Amino acid sequence: MSIESSTTKSAAPGLREAKKRETRQAISDHATRLFIERGFERTTIAEIADAARVAKKTVTNYFPRKEDLALDHQDAFVASLARHLADREPGESALAALRRAFLAAVAAQDPIAGFAGPSFTRMIAESPALTACLRGLHDQREEALAAALAEATGAAPDAIAPRTAAALIGGVHRVLFRRIQDLTLAGRDNAEIAALLEPEAVQAFALLEPALADYARA
């Protein structure tokens, strides 16, 4: 086999994967645009397929549920708290690590933390289906954190302590996420929201200190 043919064959899978990523992103971009313009419930999969110039089946192959088209960073959102726990520094508690990560996300105006902009935030707020889906994602994120806390502390998967700690920490994240949404819908820009949210986040996490200051130290 020649070097040229070997190189071509080895490059082909990479080109195919790049093409798939491009197609997926194009579908997602067109879907988001249509959802914002028309509303989530009023936009059909067929309209999204037409806009992206692909078959309807192609859309559903990439995005099995319609909600997946609007909330296409679900995996990163669900895994975020458990990932921040895993990244805690030596001697750092779970609460301290997750507070540090959240404050960094606020400073970066991270969309995963809720800084999605007015159009996207309004799209979610006006859609019962997306609002329900987002609640479910918060639940899944909390469950993932509980599992990670159980593993970090050597507790049983169904032990009450990691589940309670995850509920408390997850609850603060829910409140702050909603706060970002409310401020966005009230017309505040991301920089204003970040400035307002930093001291509020510090106060919210401080309420958990008496119970969780030493929990799950690395």
TrEMBL record:
DNA-binding region per UniProt: 44-63
Keyword match Metal-binding: no
GO MF terms, alphabetically ordered: DNA-binding transcription factor activity; transcription cis-regulatory region binding
Domain (HTH tetR-type) ranges: 21-81
Keyword Transcription regulation on entry: yes
Annotated segments matching region Disordered: 1-25
Entry keyword set: DNA-binding, Transcription, Transcription regulation
Compositionally biased intervals (Polar residues): 1-10
Protein name, UniProt field: TetR/AcrR family transcriptional regulator
Source organism of this protein record: Streptomyces buecherae
High-level lineage: Bacteria, Bacillati, Actinomycetota, Actinomycetes, Kitasatosporales
